Input
Amino acid sequence: MSASAAAWSGAAPTLRDPAARGRLTLLVVGVVVLWPLLVLAEFRPWQLFTGGNAQVMANFLGGFFPPEVAPGFLTLLFKATLETLAIATAGVALAVVVAAPLAVLAARSLSVSRIGPGPGRARGAAMRTATRAVLTLLRAIPEVVWALLFVRALGLGPGAGVLALAVTYGGMLGKVYMEILESGDTRSARALLEAGSPRIAALLYALVPSTAQELASYTVYRWECALRASVVMGFVGAGGLGQLMDQSMKMLNGGEASTILCTFLALVVVADVLSAVIRRVLA
Amino acid sequence: MNPAAASAASPPERLPRCRACVALALALAAAVAWSFLYLAVDYRQLLGAESLRLMAKFIGEFFPPDMSPAFVAKAAWGALQTFAVAAIGTLLAVVGGAALGLPAAGRCGIAARLAARLVLNFLRSVPELVWAALMVIAAGLGPFAGTLALALHTTGVLGRLYAETLENAAAAPERALRDAGSGRIAAFAYATLPLVTAQGVAYALYRLEMNIRMAAVLGFVGAGGLGQLLYFHLSIFQQAQAATLLIAMLVLVFAVDSLSALVRARLLPAHA
Output
C-alpha cells in the first residue's frame, strides 16, 4: 500500500497501472508470435471481396432459399438421419466401452501405489504413462485414417464408420474422463483407498457420484460431435447425412443443402435437451 | 418439517428419482441396441483371418516411415501450418464468442439474447467440414478457408460456453460497482471479467486442442496443412510418406495437449 500512500501524499496524484509493464510485454510477445502465424495461415481477409468471390458466394447462398421440401427428398433425408443417429449412437457406445477402463487405469486419483512409499510405485507410474500414450495414439490419428483401416476388414459401409468413431472418440473420451476424475474433489476417493477399499469401489462410491453430471454432459456433447462427424464418414461411404450433404454440395443444390443444415440444427437442439434431461436426472 | 416427518418422507422421495434413473438407463440401452440392430453390421468379419491379414498388410505398408530430411522438413512445415490455422481460428473464435456471448448472456435485453443464441446454435450446428467447403468457395483453396471454417464453428461453441460462464458468475461485485456509480463498461471490466477470464482461457485452450485435430481433417477439402499432405499421399498410396505425416500429427497433438494442460492446471484452482 506504500504506492497509494505516496500517491495520496503527493500534490498531484499520478495514477498509473501497476500491471502496465506486464501487459505491455504480453502484448509485444503476442504480436511477435502472432505475425508469423498469420502469414502461415495465409490470413488475407480481403480475398473474400476480390475477384467476384463475394458474388459467387452470394449466388451459392441464394440457392439455399427456399429449402427443398419435396416428399421424395424428405423420405431420403429421414432415412439418412436415422442412419446418422444409429452410427453416432453405436460409435459413442463403443467409445465409452473403450474409454472407461483406460480412464480408470490412467487416473492418478485412483492409484493405490501413489498413497505411500511401497513396492509397485514405479510400475504404477509406468502403467499410467503407457495408458496415456495409448489414449494419445487413439485420438491423434484422424477418424478418416482409422476408417480407411477398418474398410479393409468390413468393406465400404457403416461398420467402418462405427469402429472409427469408437477408436477416435474412445481416445478423446478417455482423456477427458481421466481429467474429470482427477480434477474433481478427490479426497473422498483417497480416504476410501487409504482405508483399504478396492479401486472399483472408490471409483463408484467416491468419484462417480460427484462427477456423474460432468461425465454425462461431456459424453452427450461427444455424441453431438459424432453426429457432425458423419460428414467425415461420408468419405468411406458410410451413408447418412454426410453422404447426402456431399452429393448436394457437389451438385450445387443449395435447396437440399439448406434442408440438411436445418436437420443438423434440429439434431443439435435435441442433443442440448438430452444433455439437460440426463443432468437433471443425475443431479 | 420436523425430523420424524422428514425421515418418514425421505424413502418415497427417493423412489421417483430412481424410477427416472431406471427409465433413462433403459431408454439409453434401447437406443444403443436399436442402433446396432438398425445398422446390422457383421462385426465378426473383423476378426476373420482374411480381414486380419488385410488390416495387417495395410498397417505394414506404413512402415518404415519416410524419414528423408527433405520430407521431414515438409512434414514439419505442414505441422506448423496446421498449428497456425488452429491457433488463428481459435483466436478469432474467442473474439467472436466473447462478442456474441455477452448478448447471449442476457446483457443487452431479451430480444438480443434470443437472437444471439440462435446465431450461436446455427454456427455450432453446421459441421466444420461443411463450413470449410463453403469457405473454399468464398476464399479459394488454402489454409485461410480452413481458418475461417474453424473460426465460425468454434465461435458457436465458445460463445455458448462464455454465455453460460457469464450467467454463472457471481453478480454481486458488478452490482456493487454500479451502485457506487461506476459506468457499465468499467463495472463489467473490473468486477465480472476477472471472475470469468481463467475459465474463458481454459475453454479456449480446450478448443485449441480439438481444433488442431480438426485442422488436420479440414486439409481433406483443400484447406492446407498436414491434412492436405496426408490426403494427397494416401490417395496415391504412398503410405510411407503418410506414416511420417501421422507421426508429425501425433507429435503436434501431444505437444499442444501437454502445453495446454500445463497452462490450464496453473490457471484454475484444484477444484474448478
Observations:
- Residues 1-12 of chain B have pLDDT under 50 and may be disordered.
- The two ends of chain B are 34 Å apart (CA to CA).
- Residues 66-267 of chain B form a domain with the MetI-like fold fold (CATH 1.10.3720.10).
